[in-house]
Amino acid sequence: MSEPIIICRDVHKWFGNFHAVRGIDMQVEKGEVVVIFGPSGSGKSTFIRTINRLEEHQRGQIIVDGIELTHDVRNIAAIRSEIGMVFQQFNLFPHLSVLSNVTMAPIWVRKWPKQKAEEVAMEILTRVGIPEQAEKYPGQLSGGQQQRVAIARALAMQPKIMLFDEPTSALDPEMIKEVLDVMTELARSGMTMLVVTHEMGFARAVANRMYFFDEGLVVESGTPDDIFKNPQEDRTKLFLSQILSH
Amino acid sequence: MSAEIKAHPGMEKPPTTSVGVLGWLHQNLFSSLLNSVLTLISAGILYLLGRGLVKWALTEARWGVITSNIKVLAWGRYPNEEAWRLGISLLIILAMGLLTWALRRGSLTQNARRALLTVWVLSPVAIVILIHGITLPTIATITNNLGYYIYRPELMPLLGEAWRASAALLVLAFVAGLTCGSVSKRTERLLSLAPLLALFLFTLPLGLLANGSLFGFDLPRLLPQTFALLVGFFSGMTVGRALTSIAAIRWLRIGSWVAVLPGLLILLTTFDVGVESVAPVEVLQIIEPNIWSGMMLTILLAVVSIVASFPIGVLLALGRRSSLPVVKGFSVLFIEVVRGVPLITILFMAQVMLPLFLPLELTVDRVIRAMVGMTLFTAAYLAEIVRGGLQAVRNEQVEAARALGLSEMLVTGLIVLPQALRAVIPPIMGQFVSIFKDTTLVTIVGLLDLLAVGQSVIKQREFLGAVREVYLFAGVFYFVISYAMSVASRRLERQLGVTEES
Question: Helix, strand, coil % (nearest 5) of chain A?
Fold first, then answer.
């Protein structure tokens, strides 16, 4: 762990007059797992979405894998293909089979031959534990299975970075574990991960660093030990006590 | 979100309920006293209304007006001896329809699906050729016409005739030699030799048949041709080898290939433009669209405007959402103007105004003008339907596709359009049914569709007054086809039905 793969300096984002992200500084190194948590409306999702430019930041600097995110369009598609993203609502393509969901980007963006793309896709589907669902359509799967397909879809592009935007928030409790297991395995394999989540058990187990967001700012950051055992700020203590007590 | 349900061994099957005819009657028509009374009253009204029609159809109606005029109603003024071409076209349409009907999602291999799609795309072209007829140009007509438009024909008499083939071979052989000398790939070498071989074979008869004189001796002209070929090739090869190392050799190669084509045209054409001897060969007798009529015209108008308006409508819908102001402005203007004008007005305008937009030499047939008008009209309505579908695709789908690194064009083509079109199959098919029925309006601009032909049939002396029969026949014709379309639409929806939101 030496070179930073994501560098954010003073990142700002407004929606109209609403100042959603108010100056975030963050550096993520290769192979690091960073967990971002905080109350809703704290700008954590917006921030993570600026890293693959689903939202454009309006001030500051974001450098991903040595390339600065600017208005250059070609630049953006190339960078996005190196960053996998998993959404809260899965966002699988309902008109395509599971296998086609996973193979589409490798075939059309990476220009792999179909056969190679399918072999890789089946490997990844096996890795996330659902190879037998390959021919089904997203609407026929449970939420946990769908989210695992979404992870497989992102992994098929062999990204350098994975972003997770509240990947378990839309799931029934019994399905959360199967998704977290996949994410834990991924983290152990050395993937660089940025995870917005409230799953504190997951954070404690695999995160290298944690950031607590509130009102568009980083209130506190540190290792999981620092955050859980010795939080400095009152806001952090209050929030942790609320989400850990239930 | 639907959880997967697995059949456990202990699960019971749902009880089967079977209801006979009597049971159905009891459940649906006579379930209560009021219901029974209503059923009986309706049955009585139906009987009173239908009695007259059935009696008339079975006893009084003179169906002879239909049976003896069936050919006129079907294809009007289209020559009877060429009607087999219409039959084959209809068979093609039916076969494609049935094939698509019978297929289920995922029941085909990739290759079979591609083949079917190709046939689908090609079949309209085949049908147009069949119905319209075709003439095929000969090599002489192609080269003459191309040459005429590129070069001034007046200059041509300055050139002699005898040396043409040899000179052409010399030039082409030089370029081929240049390529062979400077490229290293074997496939590229073979590729550059292919045109040379083709030209040699093409000019072979010239060389064998005609005699020329060389130093006073009569010799087959093949000798100078072969000589030119060898000289050209080896000199080209020498030059190519010598130039291999310079940076611009690639462009020199490409440039010389581009230049050689007009060169060959100059050398090989006679430039006798408009001369009878180079007239194209009529393979299938040309039947001008202005005599297309009857049911055949009705179906053709509908099929052409449906097939042609669909891509235009999709493009307009995408254009309306475009961020480019000119594209967006044009789409909005087109859609709003066309939708703001009645179809009849558009048909009249297509007849009167279309020639204003076209070059003077190009005269477009009246039937084609009507097709253009109906296509543009349908396209504007389709564009609005498709736009509705595009808006129904959730933005998260676009984001997910972008996050995978797909370009905007791929996002639209692979993710947004397929979902949008699926969502709007019912209104699209509704629009198609409606344009099919609206083909009757072309009567007003003087085209002879089924209805117009029917009206002329009524005026025949022996069937004077057989109005009901003809209109009933036409009505049934329109209904059967419209109903078939709406059944097909429902089937299509079911086939593509696995679109449950996640």
Answer: 40, 25, 35
Q: How confident is the model at residue A209 (pLDDT cuts 50, 70, 90)?
A: very high
In angstroms and rounded to an integer, the radius of gyration of the C-alpha atoms of chain B is 33
Decide if B407 and A77 are in contact by the 8 Å CB cutoff: yes
Task: Supply B297's token pair.
Answer: 């015209």
Q: How far is CA B162 from the centre of its chain?
A: 45
Length of chain A measured in residues: 246
Alpha-carbon torsion angle B360, B363, B364, B366, nearest 10: 120
Residues in contact with B492: Cβ distance below 8 Å, sequence separation at least 6, in sequence order: B425, B429
Beta-carbon contacts of B285 under 8 Å, excluding residues fewer than 6 positions away, are B79, B82, B133
DSSP state of B14: P
3-state secondary structure of A152: helix
Q: Which of A85, A90, A140 sits opposite B2 (nearest CB)?
A: A140
Is pLDDT at A134 greater than 50 in this prediction?
A: yes
Structure tokens at B88: 């084959």
Q: Which amino acid is at A96?
A: L
Instruction: Kindly report the CATH number that applies to the domain delimited by B67-76+292-496.
Output: 1.10.3720.10
State how far the Cα of B319 lies from the Cα of B309, in Å rounded to an integer: 15
pLDDT at B29 > cutoff 70: yes
Beta-strand relationship, A67-68 and A83-86: unpaired
Where does CATH 1.10.3720.10 sit in chain B? 67-76+292-496
What residue type is B433 in one-letter code?
V
- Whether residue B256 contacts residue B182, with contact meaning beta carbons closer than 8 Å, is answered with no
Q: Which residues of B touch A (CB under 8 A)?
A: 1-4, 106, 110, 396-397, 399-407, 410, 414-415, 418-419, 422, 496, 498-502
- Under DSSP, the state recorded for B411 is I
| AA identity, residue A14 | W
Lowest model confidence (mean pLDDT) among B18-22, B105-109, B389-393: B105-109
Question: For B77-116, how does the pLDDT look when each residue is reduced to its tens digit (9 = 90+)?
Answer: 888 888 888 888 889 888 888 877 776 655 667 677 778 8
Kindly report the pTM of this predicted structure: 0.73
Buried b (16+ CB within 10 A) or exposed e, B319-332: bbeeeeeebeeebe
In angstroms, the CA B481 to CA A242 distance is 66
- Please indicate whether, in this complex, the C-beta atoms of A54 and B407 are within 8 angstroms of each other: no
Q: Which amino acid is at B275?
A: V
Distance (Å, whole) CA A197 – CA A45: 10
Q: Are B496 and A94 in contact (CB under 8 A)?
A: no
Q: Which of A109, A120, A116, A121 is nearest to A149 (CA)?
A: A121
Name B435's Cβ contacts closer than 8 Å, sequence gap at least 6.
B302, B305, B306, B309, B374, B377, B378
A166: left (phi over 0), alpha (psi -120 to 50) or beta: left
**Closest CA–CA distance from residue A93 to any residue of chain B (Å):** 7
Dihedral-angle region of residue A83 (phi above 0 means left; psi in -120 to 50 means alpha; beta otherwise): beta
Neighbouring-strand partners of residue B282: B135
Pairing of strands A192-196, A209-214: unpaired
DSSP-assigned beta bridge partners for residue A214: A217
**A-chain residues within 8 Å CB-CB of B399?**
54, 87, 91
- Choose the closest CB to B405 out of A80, A87, A89: A80
| Chain A / chain B CB contacts < 8 angstroms | 90
